[in-house]
């Protein structure tokens, strides 16, 4: 699977305590910092100031800014997006190409945008991982 260090970097968790997969799970369960949403949104959609509300609904985001922590479910969704972004960067070797893949409908995904499937569910993310894996390892995609 993907190096946990990549996901930690994407989420902006730079401390050594989060450097193992199990530590990352604990961090997610304890509540990722709200600024991780801003960071991921800037990486994936730097010109869309509203994209963060696709990751966390606006009213919820505003509440989380007060507590400074995401719920476990919100953190899990954010980490899922970070994992897909990490693999897309690995496959496409550049931010713009990775973004184009994620935000463009794809025939192997029933003409849906990969990012929408990733945000929606773990199963959707697995479908996107399959397409990215096919691209990375040379199968038709």
UniProtKB/TrEMBL annotation:
<dbReference type="InterPro" id="IPR046847">
    <property type="entry name" value="Xre-like_HTH"/>
</dbReference>
<protein>
    <submittedName>
        <fullName>Putative toxin-antitoxin system antitoxin component, TIGR02293 family</fullName>
    </submittedName>
</protein>
<dbReference type="InterPro" id="IPR011979">
    <property type="entry name" value="Antitox_Xre"/>
</dbReference>
<feature type="domain" description="Antitoxin Xre-like helix-turn-helix">
    <location>
        <begin position="24"/>
        <end position="83"/>
    </location>
</feature>
<dbReference type="Pfam" id="PF20432">
    <property type="entry name" value="Xre-like-HTH"/>
</dbReference>
<dbReference type="InterPro" id="IPR024467">
    <property type="entry name" value="Xre/MbcA/ParS-like_toxin-bd"/>
</dbReference>
<dbReference type="GO" id="GO:0003677">
    <property type="term" value="F:DNA binding"/>
</dbReference>
<dbReference type="Pfam" id="PF09722">
    <property type="entry name" value="Xre_MbcA_ParS_C"/>
</dbReference>
<feature type="domain" description="Antitoxin Xre/MbcA/ParS-like toxin-binding">
    <location>
        <begin position="88"/>
        <end position="138"/>
    </location>
</feature>
